[in-house]
Amino acid sequence: MAEVTYYTEEGLVKLREELQYLKTEGRTKIANAIAEARDKGDLSENAEYDAAKEAQGLHEAKIAKLETVLSTARVIDESNLDTSKVLALSIVKIKNVKNGAVMTYQLVSETEADFKSGKISVKSPIAQGLLGLKVGDVATVTVPAGELNLEVLEISR
Asked: pLDDT of 14-37, one tens digit each?
């Protein structure tokens, strides 16, 4: 059984759009590349044809993976979520106890994660350390650079 993943409505729409693009325009581009390479002659010695066929395989694998993800995807109704503790889709304001740096992150699914926009995966070490905590709690999180002590300052949706 595949693992259920939770998404924001926006994240699920983006996944569906990407799948639609891959199935339509993406497949058309690859088919054109294969046809163009095929027209160049002997297929047994045609590196361009081999590359196009390999790209097609990778493309189809990506489509299959997205279809699997979408089949197990669920949208979280944020209006019913408890804001007293950190959960998936929570927006969490935290402070590094050691240096006083304050950061705000939203905990999202792996495919929605985008560090530049403040969205981190719920499977990341920081998110795993924060899940279930309440305002005022301090988490000790092990990251590649060592251990961080992070205090939860605020939780919102």
From this structure: 899 999 999 999 999 999 988 888
